[in-house]
């Protein structure tokens, strides 16, 4: 039941520059995504991004884009309809999903992954929508559908498993 860094992929959904100013708690959401992406990279967890309608919403925030190994440009709200599964590293079954908007693109991407048989994990402190109620409704629905709801810090410690992990101090510095 614990998250396993060797089985995980982080998918950051649509943290786009033109969208972020409208997002509830945007600064916190961006900070948590940056923290999680840096932790993932330290622990060799692949980091992927998505961008919704790049022409209209622009690219992902620069700091996020720099941490993503690949970015999927999409027009569907659910990234699975635009080929997300094709860019997921083979053999990794735990997909951590974060991003915006929680009740639209993040939700539909997570549901698509659940339908494909992946174990879906939502880092709840790294997702949001324009309205908190929309975020909360999305998280409640995903919980009912079988996604695991965790925090960034929970993920970090589960990925580490042991304070003797060679990257423990580096990860701890990002958490504190």
TrEMBL record:
<dbReference type="InterPro" id="IPR036380">
    <property type="entry name" value="Isochorismatase-like_sf"/>
</dbReference>
<dbReference type="InterPro" id="IPR000868">
    <property type="entry name" value="Isochorismatase-like_dom"/>
</dbReference>
<dbReference type="Pfam" id="PF00857">
    <property type="entry name" value="Isochorismatase"/>
</dbReference>
<protein>
    <submittedName>
        <fullName>Isochorismatase family protein</fullName>
    </submittedName>
</protein>
<feature type="domain" description="Isochorismatase-like">
    <location>
        <begin position="9"/>
        <end position="153"/>
    </location>
</feature>
<dbReference type="InterPro" id="IPR050993">
    <property type="entry name" value="Isochorismatase_domain"/>
</dbReference>
